[in-house]
Design brief:
The complex is a heterodimer of chains A (538) and B (72). Chain A is of the alpha+beta class and 538 residues long. Among the domains of chain A are: 16-91 and 124-198 and 293-367, FAD/NAD(P)-binding domain, CATH 3.50.50; 439-531, Glutaredoxin (3-Layer(aba) Sandwich). In chain A, the strands form six sheets. In chain A, strands 1, 2, 8, 9, 10, 11, 19 and 20 form an eight-stranded mixed sheet that branches. Chain A has a seven-stranded mixed sheet with strand order 6-5-14-15-16-13-17, sandwiched between helices. A five-stranded mixed sheet of chain A has the order 25-26-24-27-28, with helices on one face. In chain A, α2 packs parallel to α9 (320-339), α3 (71-79) packs across α4 and α9 (320-339) packs antiparallel against α10. The longest helix of chain A has 25 residues, at 349-373. Chain A is globular and about 70 Å long. With 72 residues, chain B is mainly α. Chain B has a domain at 24-62. Chain B is built from three helices and no strands. The longest helix of chain B has 19 residues, at 28-46. The radius of gyration of chain B is 15 Å and the shape is globular. Chain B starts with 11 loop residues before the first helix and ends in an 8-residue tail after the last helix. Classes of the chains: A alpha+beta (538), B mainly alpha (72). Chain A binds chain B through residues 382-383, 385-387, 389-390, 394, 396-397, 400, and chain B through 29, 32-33, 36-37, 39-41, 44.
Chain lengths: 538, 72
């Protein structure tokens, strides 16, 4: 199996601290070198924090697992220097087709708005993604990536956590001011802190087959409800790079996972779907069930949970890895501010506030998709089929078809870090919203708005009385449209309703914190304080 | 807008006849799907989520209320 990919084997390197028997206190230790843990390491490094990553294995994800990556995570990875490579290697797609029985019900086009650096969605095997993240971590002097390091236990103290770690050389102890647990849906770290992880389990089993074929399907997402080749169930077909195709068969609740994984069961299913003449090779097969659930709190003392360790969703809509990357985006700058002493520890509670809100939104979307795809009663199936039949001719019914709502960011509209609008804006860039990109011109030529952002930024349309605003050791630098960059296309001004005088305070994770119609240094200071969790906003 | 619960259909007997006629000659599964589609079509026509919520609650409570109480 895996004709198209050779798994790298990363070396175990004994650490000096284990060899010398000294207990070191690290600012941040990340548990788990999956996509989220590796992203956490890169984001900490980007914010100047030395970071140790522990992983109990020594390779990348076995099987491709996560496939689709959405625009916002790509923008985050672009901030970390790896986004362009992912887009180049991945399969860019925007059209989806939905079939019911033997006919096409409708076609959607994600129709990405022009003037954004990152595409709406790419498909890329998880192992390719992880391999590039590992290479980026290896290239960073701030990341210490340690393979074959298993966390055995964790004890919390007031100002650190004590970690007991096992390597091929035995057991040793290390301390961490902060731990980021990215050890997945079956997180051992979550068990160690005694956190609850609750939600809904789904009984249906699904078969994932990654097959290699040179078939001439377009780079589109095809979804079948009740197709002739797989009666009564759903099927998804999606393209990855290297001619690898993801096929996902719903099997029902009574399927035997061990039986269903056997090639003699899998191959006929795929032949029925593709036709007897299409040549393909099985690359990876897995049978899974899923749950929609989340951790009680994203912060347990000195341990912060991210990715599947904090929330598990159904695969419909590609909300797993995409959400996890956004957890890290939210967390890393807050850890930086706390470690620098520029923000109180309570700022980290806003990580729970904002990302639990996003997780609940994702869980609701994911649960709704699951209920549509796998109806739980005769009547819910009848309603589902009625929607699908109506959708062939009726536009209103197409809006009800739910084969997975593709991941989009959840704005932190109620966040206590926001300073609410007091003036009217004709722009959706409300406080708590991730910044929209736009093409801009800078000294060195054509560039992108999001690539100009670094730390706290004040986006100003027109001249401002000062170049920056400071709170303690934190500075928000002004980027003035017309002076520091040119809005040649007009997109930036239009997307932000940038009438002259308009000022946006933008957080280090590229989210709007506040906005005004004129530059008022006192108002900006107050908003920056609030965003740092000072002046009792938390 | 509130859900209209007073008589609002002109010539109710003729309407009821057309409701029966819409699925009279069909097998049960198709007849049920006609009703399901009718619900979806009318729900879209109404659009107002508050009115739809009131209608859903009325349909459900009018059904569940009729169940005999569970044995103690």
């Amino acid at each position: 199996m895996l004709a198209t990919y050779r798994y790298p084997e990363f070396p175990y390197v004994p650490s000096p601290e284990q060899r010398d028997g000294v207990v070191l206190r690290h600012p941040v230790v990340v548990i788990g070198a999956g996509p989220i843990g590796l992203t956490a390491a890169l984001d900490c490094a980007a914010r100047g924090i030395p970071v140790v990553v522990l992983d109990d294995n020594n390779t990348v994800s076995i099987g491709s697992r996560a496939v689709c990556y959405a625009k916002r995570p790509l923008e985050i990875w672009d901030r970390l220097g790896v986004g362009e490579a992912f887009v180049e290697q991945g399969v860019n797609w925007q059209v989806g087709r939905v079939f019911f029985k033997d006919h096409r019900v409708y076609t959607f086009d994600l129709l990405p708005e022009a003037g954004h650096k990152m595409p709406a969605m790419i498909n890329l095997q998880q192992y390719h993604l992880e391999e590039r993240l590992v290479a980026a971590c290896d290239a960073s002097p701030k990341v210490d990536l340690r393979w074959k390091h298993r966390l055995l236990s964790l004890q919390q103290a007031d100002d650190h956590a004590l970690l007991t770690v096992e390597t091929p050389d035995g057991v040793f102890r290390m301390e961490a001011q902060w731990v980021i647990a990215c050890d997945g849906a079956n997180s051992e770290t979550r068990r160690m802190v005694g956190a609850e992880f609750t939600g809904r389990f789904f009984q249906d089993r699904f078969l994932i087959a990654d097959v290699v074929m040179a078939a001439g399907f377009p780079s589109e997402r095809w979804f079948w409800f009740d197709p002739p080749f797989h009666r009564g169930q759903s099927v998804l077909l999606h393209k990855q790079c290297d001619n690898v195709w993801r096929i996902d068969f719903q099997l029902g609740w009574d399927a035997d996972p061990d039986e269903e994984k056997k090639p003699e069961k899998v191959v006929p299913r795929i032949q029925a779907m593709l036709g007897k003449d299409v040549k393909f090779e099985l690359e990876w097969v897995s049978v899974y069930q899923f749950a929609c659930r989340r951790i009680d709190r994203f912060r347990h003392g000195r341990v912060l949970f991210a990715g599947d360790a904090a929330h598990q969703v159904s695969p419909f809509g590609a909300r797993g890895a995409n959400t996890g990357v956004q957890d890290i985006d939210n967390l890393a700058w807050k850890l930086q501010m706390v470690l620098l002493g520029e923000a109180p520890v309570s700022l980290l509670d806003s990580y729970d506030e904002e990302r639990a809100f996003a997780a609940d939104d994702n869980l609701a979307h994911s649960t709704r998709s699951t209920d549509f795809i796998t109806p739980k009663s005769r009547t819910s199936r009848m309603l589902r089929d009625a929607v699908l039949e109506l959708a062939e001719t009726e536009a209103f019914a197409r809006r009800l078809v739910n084969s997975g709502r593709l991941s989009t960011p959840t704005p932190y509209v109620h966040s206590s870090l926001n300073t609410p609008d007091v003036e009217a804006f004709d722009s959706p860039m409300k406080p708590g919203t991730p910044c929209a990109d736009a093409r801009v011109r800078i000294d060195t030529g054509s560039s992108w708005w999001l690539n100009q952002l670094d730390g706290f930024v004040l986006l100003a349309f027109g001249p401002t009385p000062q170049r920056s605003v400071r709170v303690g050791g934190v500075t928000a630098h002004v980027l003035s449209v017309g002076r520091d960059l040119v809005d040649e296309t007009g997109d930036l001004t239009q997307r932000y309703d940038g009438r002259p005088g308009t000022v946006y305070l933008i957080r280090p994770d590229q989210h709007v914190a506040a906005r005004w119609r004129q530059f008022d240094a006192h108002a900006i200071e107050a908003a920056l304080m609030r965003c740092l969790g000072k002046n009792g906003s938390l | 807008m509130k859900l209209i619960r007073t008589p609002n259909i002109a010539d109710p007997d003729a309407f009821y006849d057309s409701l029966l006629a819409a699925q009279r000659d069909l097998p049960d599964d198709q007849a049920e799907r006609v009703l399901a589609k009718l619900v979806l079509i009318l729900a879209n026509h109404v659009g107002d989520r508050a009115v739809l919520a009131e209608a859903l609650e009325l349909a459900r409570s009018n059904t569940v209320r009729r169940q005999p109480p569970a044995p103690a």
